[in-house]
């Protein structure tokens, strides 16, 4: 135990493959010590090598971390990982985009020559080929793509980390050891691409499934294109620039928008084909499934309608999250999905793409924040950190100590309630936990009938709506 | 909250105060009680058009008399309903108390007899409102025609970002001899109520009072809206607001209902190179620009957001734009409090965008934006910020350009007002800006004056569209008979 704690203090990255149950046995004092020393360590190591963090520290006039709240002004607004101008994409200035990214990572990418590059996909491939990074983009369908400069090593660590969670979350060795005993993996999405969802695919095929023949994807050959994912943000930006903007959108992108409509038409058939394949190839066996609830529900609803249920073996596992995502689903959506899948062991998480750690839901419905993530609740109006008191509600921000090559200190757009500082969760895991519901501030602000005369109308665009569904 | 707000239902002079349903109360929002509209829904719209007749027993002058008298009763010091609306607006509105106090202290000013007459003269022609106007000779010998403008039974789904929307609705309804049901917005549920309550107190049986109703229901309440949006009781809908609220209303459209949309709009600025002639000129331009960005805390569709500046985009040009940004931010901080203040509820999503671009000093220069004081973001290339459509709370984006061509081509159908400097540039560009989509061109600094826009609004002339243009024709009987062969 003390070994475990000492290792975390010395190197928070060691958390990724340490027995996960131990994380929630630390005392609050240990957690606070880890937070403070870890924050000092990361800030000390990263500030001199990350120009953007350095700039923020100078802006905020912070030189040392004396108390944990000193970190709060150094957390990036979540917009930082998408703070490049969209004009870089429109003018194919991928050299400038590279330079922008270099300010956010300690990984050396200065040798990359992106001057001839014309698409985001090509730029990401170039970085894959010539650097230690495998940059992930968010799905960002309502706006711009964020680019998170995660290293190849860190991606591998996140996949090992997920397996460690699956093995130990409900108690030591309570789950399958999918790193040792290979398991079929089933993912109702794209096999390739650089969205956070796809970045782990290759490593999961390798580490969990032990090869492509033991893996099933909905689109096994296809790539989820970053250029397509960027369409909504680019069209929005272009439209607000009138005729001047629309002229800047390359025809090839507009064509790809059209092909999304084709894909949408084929989608129901693709879904049917996918689960028929899943059943044919892996029916009755213990499998690993990962997908957002909303997609699984589509799948389950279709299957249950046709009387299909209990597809997989009882020892299967599901890694999931995302809630309803604005979809119209009945209150018993979890039960319906599990009835269809045929097993009950699911791991539901609350996570942020820039962080490596995941917050897992316990049997009491709370999401437990691992000790390597330093959580903050910020006053939504002023951004000042609220005291660590059980039951307080505010804007969630956090610094994940696992990433050691970029600053995983972020202010999210989520409103959450935190407890566990004064009294542990009823599940007896120690440390802070998120008490649902989690809400987006943007959702809370809209939606009623406050009517104003100022604003830019949104045109209805079916292709982009489908893109939003697709990238969940 | 020490005080609970009640939003009565007022139907044709009858005040229903039995407020049983609590609405609102969201984060930062006030809650208020209102009667259950479902209990009274049957009498809200006017299903008997013959009841419009009383509006034609009074003259245009009588209506002006009525409105002028109403304006006098809206005195902030003595009218409790106005005070109550002000108090609630201080909670629900994006405008600060000092700005609201100024608005509510001057409600009566809008009821100026000469102004109201001029507005109707320009939009409909008073003689058309007063009687049948001969349409001149026709191609057919002996055929003549007369046209008159008649009021219509109309639902007004109004915006709540400034009290003037309620005032305009009441004035337009009265002067066009229409019958209005005003659907109150949750961000200003009491201003229209204050006006109509005052009308009831002043002249409970007057036809104008009998043809205006106000009601709050939650926008999107299907049971209510299916009953209301029915062509048997409604001829027109005037809908303010965003894509979602208008889109929502369109599902009730059917033959017999005319929709007049007052779409959400954005406004901008074009500043020619003359601004940089000398420091005094630049100082003056900065002050006028601060006014267009900051007036009414940038809550209106007339407020400037993206500012194209013909400074040039080379190093010197960008420096010129930066200097304008610096001066404009300083001027913004000195605007009088009745016009503009730091925003009381600064948009946090916008704040995080500003915080992020501040760290990208190669691309953007940010003046201000640390708290709620407002900001000028100067792009260092000829591109607006990617969040330009979310600019609010006194945040403008200055975009340096080499030629105003870029600015002209950036104007689109969502552009309402454009403030322009110098005057000669406005004259040079006005035709082109108009066909790009712009709707109102003003001298830099004049965006929020709103003169000569009360009836033109967004270039769609809603007053003209609120009335029904009815024609009566006469022909010689034997000529018509001859057509039958």
Topology of helices and strands:
The complex is a heterodimer of chains A (472) and B (485).
Chain A (H helix, E strand, L loop, with lengths): L1 H9 L17 H19 L4 H10 L15 E2 L9 H4 L3 H9 L17 H11 L5 E2 L9 E2 L3 H17 L16 E9 L2 H4 L1 H9 L5 E10 L1 H4 L1 H9 L2 H5 L4 H32 L5 E3 L2 H13 L11 E5 L11 H9 L4 E5 L8 E3 L5 E2 L4 E6 L13 E9 L8 E11 L13 E8 H5 L16 H9 L2
Parallel strand pairs in A: 1-13, 4-5, 4-6, 6-7, 7-8
Antiparallel strand pairs in A: 2-3, 8-9, 9-10, 10-14, 11-12, 12-13, 13-14
Helix pairs in contact in A: 1-2, 7-9, 13-17, 14-15
Chain B lengths: L4 E2 L2 E3 L2 E3 L4 E4 L6 E4 L25 H14 L6 H13 L4 H9 L7 H11 L2 H5 L2 E2 L9 E7 L2 E5 L6 H12 L3 E5 L7 H12 L4 H4 L1 E4 L6 H7 L7 E5 L2 H8 L7 E5 L3 E6 L7 H16 L9 E6 L5 H18 L15 H11 L5 E5 L6 E5 L15 E6 L3 H7 L4 E7 L1 H14 L3 E4 L18 H5 L1 E7 L2 H7 L2
Parallel strand pairs in B: 1-5, 8-9, 8-11, 9-10, 11-12, 13-14, 13-18, 14-17, 16-17, 18-19
Antiparallel strand pairs in B: 2-3, 4-5, 6-7, 7-20, 15-16
Write a compact overview of the structure shown.
The complex is a heterodimer of chains A (472) and B (485). By secondary structure, chain A is α/β, with parallel strands linked by helices.
Characterize the structure shown.
The complex is a heterodimer of chains A (472) and B (485). Chain A is α/β, with parallel strands linked by helices and 472 residues long. Helices cover 38% and strands 16% of the residues of chain A. Chain A has helices at residues 2-10, 28-46, 51-60, 87-90, 94-102, 120-130, 152-168, 196-199, 201-209, 226-229, 231-239, 242-246, 251-282, 293-305, 333-341, 441-445, 462-470; strands at residues 76-77, 136-137, 147-148, 185-193, 215-224, 288-290, 317-321, 346-350, 359-361, 367-368, 373-378, 392-400, 409-419, 433-440. In chain A, strands 1, 4, 5, 6, 7, 8, 9, 10, 11, 12, 13 and 14 form a 12-stranded mixed beta sheet that branches. In chain A, strands 2-3 form a two-stranded antiparallel sheet. In chain A, a hairpin with a 5-residue loop joins strand 9 and strand 10. Chain A is globular and about 55 Å long. The two termini of chain A are 39 Å apart. The mean pLDDT of chain A is 91. Chain B is of the alpha/beta class and 485 residues long. Chain B contains 17 helices and 20 strands. Chain B has helices at residues 60-73, 80-92, 97-105, 113-123, 126-130, 164-175, 191-202, 207-210, 222-228, 243-250, 279-294, 315-332, 348-358, 404-410, 423-436, 462-466, 477-483; strands at 5-6, 9-11, 14-16, 21-24, 31-34, 133-134, 144-150, 153-157, 179-183, 212-215, 236-240, 258-262, 266-271, 304-309, 364-368, 375-379, 395-400, 415-421, 440-443, 468-474. In chain B, the strands form 5 sheets. In chain B, strands 15-16-17-14-13-18-19 form a 7-stranded mixed beta sheet, with helices on both faces. The longest helix of chain B has 18 residues, at 315-332.
